[in-house]
Design a protein that fits this description.
The protein is an alpha+beta fold. The chain has 3 helices and 3 strands; from the N terminus they run E-H-H-E-E-H. The relative contact order is 0.26. The model has no long low-confidence stretch (mean pLDDT 81). One of its GO terms (molecular function) is FAD binding.
């Protein structure tokens, strides 16, 4: 098993979007099901935490997440 954990702070665009977190959750569920990925999405006071679990080596999509990290 492979696990990926990442956190992000919600943007103003996301915060002002009606049903933003619900839209993200639905999108993630649909996408993850197609790729056989399970996970946990946690949202607390503007911070999104995500733990993803995948049986095979993580896909190239995660490279995009890593390239967007800010220190």
């Amino acid at each position: 098993m492979y696990y990926i954990f990442y956190q992000a702070v919600e943007s103003a665009v996301f915060k002002n979007q009606e049903n933003g977190i619900e839209s993200l959750l639905n999108y993630s569920r649909e996408n993850n099901k197609k790729q056989n990925i399970t996970g946990l999405l946690l949202y607390i006071e503007g911070t999104l935490s995500n733990i993803l679990r995948e049986k095979k080596m993580p896909s190239k999509n995660y490279t995009v997440l890593l390239s967007q990290t800010k220190g």
